[in-house]
Amino acid sequence: MGNNNYKPKEFAELISILVKTLQRWDHDSKLKAYRTPTNRRYYTYEQYLKYIGKTNIEDKRKIVIYTRVSTSNQK
Predict the structure, then answer these.
(1) Over 70: is that where the pLDDT of 1 sits?
(2) The domain 1-75: what is its CATH number?
(3) Where are the chain's structural domains?
(4) Which of 2, 47, 58, 62 is buried deepest, with most CB atoms within 10 A?
(5) DSSP characters for 8-65?
(6) What are the CA-CA distances from residue 6 to residues 25, 40, 45, 48 (Å)?
């Protein structure tokens, strides 16, 4: 597992819940765990961001506002 992956205990501590709750959420499909080839659960940083309500921290879009005047008196 890479740096952006968490063991169930680490992830549970990160979001302040019990590991049993994570297991139940995985079973109920509320927050599905990923599985290693040996069938161990793990969670990703992207799942953490989604849980806390952040969709994409790499979003570097700029907001551009375009205005137009029809006559020189509107300037």
Answers:
(1) no
(2) 1.10.1660.10
(3) 1-75
(4) 47
(5) HHHHHHHTT--HHHHHHHHHTTSSPPEE-TT--EEEEHHHHHHHHT-S-TT-------
(6) 16, 11, 8, 10
